Structure prediction request, 262 residues.
Amino acid sequence: MSELPAVVDAGWVADHLGESDLVLADVRGPNAHMRGHVPGSIPLVLGSPAQATDAEVLEAFAKEAGLRLRRHGITGEERLVLYDGGDCVSAASAMQVAELAGHPRVAVLAGGLRAWDGELREGIVELERSRVELEPRLEAFPTRDELAARLGDAELTLVDVRREDEYTGRGGYPCDPRQGHIPGARRVEVSTLFAGPGTPRTGDEIRSLTGFTPGADLVTYCHSGSRSALGAMALRSAGYRARNYVGSWHEWSRHPELPIER
Prediction:
C-alpha cells in the first residue's frame, strides 16, 4: 500500500499525478471546480458537522458523509488528497469528515489551489458511484464526553489554538455563556504553526515550538472548530497524532456541568 503523508505540497502532487490509486478532490464546490481545477481532480463536498458531539448526531453525520463519498466514486482503497482555494480551512475540516466516514488514507494539499503552479482544467467531471460502504470511525471526532472523562489523563494533551484573551476568559465570543478554557489545555495559537496561509511550518519548527511528546494523543480546539482543524493539520504535518474537537468552546461552554479554567 502506497504511503501518504498527512500533508503534501504541490511538488508531491505533481510527482504523483496520474497514479491509479491517487484521487485528488476539490472541496470548494462543483461550480468552483468547473471553472478551474487541478487536472484529474473531482469535486467533493462532504458537508460540515454540527457543533455538537452527541453520539447520535455523529453517527448520523458519519453515514451521510459515507454516502457522499460513495456518490463521488470513493472506495477507501485510494489515497485521497483534498484541496481548497488556499487557506486549507475547508480541506482540513473535510479531511476529518472523510476519516469519520471511514476513509483510512486522507491528506491535505498545503496551500491548496493557490500553491498549484501547473495547468488548470475547466469543465464538468463525470463521476461514477461506488458500491463500497465504508465503516464509520466515530473515534475520529473527539466528543465532549470523551474529553470530560479524560481530563487529567497523562496520555491526552488538549491544545487550545485560540488567542490569549479567549484562553484566559478576558475576551471571547458573546454567544458563549462562559469564557475561559478546558482545564489543563495548553495554548498554542494556530497562526504560530503556519509559515503562510494553508502552509504549515516545517516539522522541526513545529516540534521545537510546541515541545509535545512524540506519540501523544493531541486534541485541538478553538471556538467553533475551524482554527482547530488547521491546528490539527499542522500538528499532523509534524508527525503528531492529532484530532480536532469540532464542538470546541462553542459546545463546551454550554454545558454547566463541564469544568472550565480562567
Remarks:
- The mean pLDDT is 96.
